[in-house]
Amino acid sequence: MSPLRYALALAVPGLLAAPQLFAQSQAEIIEKALSPLPADLRTDATVYTYDEDTGQRITLKTGSNHVECQPTDAEGFTRCNPVSLRARNDLSAKLRAQGLDGEELQLALQKAEDEGQIPPRVFGALSYRRFDTPDRIQYLFVISLPNATAEELGMPTGPQRDNALAGKGTPWMMRSGTSGAHLMIPVNGTEYSNMAMMMGH
Known about the structure:
Layout: H1 3-11, H2 18-34, H3 39-42, E1 46-50, E2 57-61, E3 67-70, E4 77-82, H4 86-97, H5 102-114, E5 126-131, E6 139-144, H6 150-153, H7 161-165, E7 172-174, E8 182-186
Parallel strand pairs: 1-3
Antiparallel strand pairs: 1-2, 3-4, 4-5, 5-6, 6-8, 7-8
C-alpha cells in the first residue's frame, strides 16, 4: 500500500471509495493530457508517459489513431505528437534517463537519425502544446519543416512570443534551414489560450 493510500485509509475508516478516487485521478490526468488536441482526435489518441529512471514507455491509454499525448510534465507543459515521432521520443527518454540533456541530447538524437536508428522528422507533421500559466505561450501548434528555409516557404522569422503572450500572436519560423526547422503557431481565442490584452480608453 502506498503511503498516500495508507494515510487516507487511516483518516477515513472504511473508505470504500478509495479505488474510485484514484481511478478518477488517473482519468483526470488522461483528460488533460488529451486537451491540446482538437476534439475529434481525443477519443482514439494514445496517452503515455516514461519511467524517469529507465526511460521505459508506460501506456496509460491505448489509442488507435495517429496522435499520442503525454501528461503535464513538471515544468507545466502538456504535449501531443504524431506517432511518427514515437521512436525519436522513446530514444530521447532513454537518453535523458542516462543523464543527457540540452545540446548533448540533441546531438545524440541527430546522430541516431543520421545512422538510421530513428526515422527523420516528417515534413509537415503537426504537434500540439499547452502550458499552464500565462508567462509562456499557453496554446501552441508546431509544424515540423526539416531542412526547409524561411525564404523558400515564404515564412516570417520574427519572434512572436510577446504578441502571443498578449493573445495576438501570429506564426513564425524557427531554426530555418536545419533538420529541426519548424513553424510556431500560437493559437488565440480558445479557453486554453493567453488572454487578449484589452486596450484602455
